[in-house]
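Box 3.1 A note on notation
Throughout this textbook, protein chains are presented in two layers. The first layer is the amino acid sequence; the second is a token string describing backbone geometry. Keep the layers aligned when reading.
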Amino acid sequence: MTASTSSPAETIAVIGLGYVGLPLAVALARHFPVLGFDIDQGRVDELRQGEDRTREVEPEALRSSSLHLSADPADLPGKSVYIVTVPTPVDAQNLPDLGPVRSASRTVGRALGQRPAPQAAVVYESTVYPGVTEDICAPILEQESGLACGRDFFLGYSPERINPGDKIHTVDKITKVVAGQTPEVAARLADIYGKVTSGGIHLAPTIKTAEAAKVIENAQRDINIAFVNEIAMIFGKMGISTYDVLEAAGTKWNFLKFQPGLVGGHCIGVDPYYLAHRAKELGHYARIILSGRAINDGMSTYIGEAVSARIKPSSSILVLGLTFKEDVPDLRNSKVADLIGSLKNLGHKVSVHDPLADPHEAQHEYGVMLAPRLDQLEGFDAVVAAVPHQAYRALGQAGLARLAREGGLVADLKGIWRGQTMPAGRQYWTL
């Protein structure tokens, strides 16, 4: 255990220890007394052993941190700052599911009421639509605590910008957007976050502004990817490689470099629905946002049909990768699962491999049984590289020749083998 390096005037609790909360809690613990709280006792136990299943925090950094870990709500009262970093998914109808945020607000509210700290601040990092912090979370905090928001405790918002698997744009290097219920609270939060990151602080004028900034960051990426996915469909009908086109167009200085593919995960594939939902409540139909979502959500069906058209009925197919992006174990909102369903619905026999995904989680979330070892797989009618994990990028001719039988198809969704000569007798296809 290491000592804090600055004044312990602020005592902080981080609620939710996933991809966002854990790196933030570890970073804050270098400067403040910090409690990392999660309702999952198993998660807390593994973190106490120095093991982070998300791979966002290295074992040594976790073991040497002064961070206190708990799943007991009795440890929460008396903190001066509560930072909520719980998920904000959508439901089966793609409507915002604020259940985790509401639940965390109730937990924090009860803690505030049991032993309120003077001028306590409750900060939300979870991605929401503008108004959630003040209009939904604040009343819950007041009801559970018996305290008055704006007098006994104060609100803040600082949107998370964690990019799973990204070791460059980490929480200690990115610009942090911060907003507070009052200028004084905003300045206080800016000071706290300023000790964590070298990337600087941007003070947003209002909490709603900060909420809006976060939700459009991902909506913008979603729309740009949707454009590239749509042109991939068009160029596919022309027999033109989308990657070749993008490579040529990318030589222009102001061309935005996005790539086609499946759009899943807990941010880009989810957050636009939050903004579209709020727009609908206000009487506005978010045409561009929802059109982009429709295109991206439909890519699994498009790819499934494109693969199926190039092979015989009832073919055996190996899908490489199940997580929502490369080199991370995160299975949330994986669109590869939809692609697997599409291929099965088209009558094919599908096997799946992923070196990073948890087999039990894959079975529980998607009913997918993962093949245990890549080197034991061989002779498929088609191989679909869905997620460009390093283990798949490193496959050479011999590996591909083993996996795809002669006369079989190699479907390379992310273009990871574009410059590689295919084994003799294998058909190559990419977007």
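Confidence is low (pLDDT under 50) at residues 1-7. The chain is about 40% helix and 15% strand.
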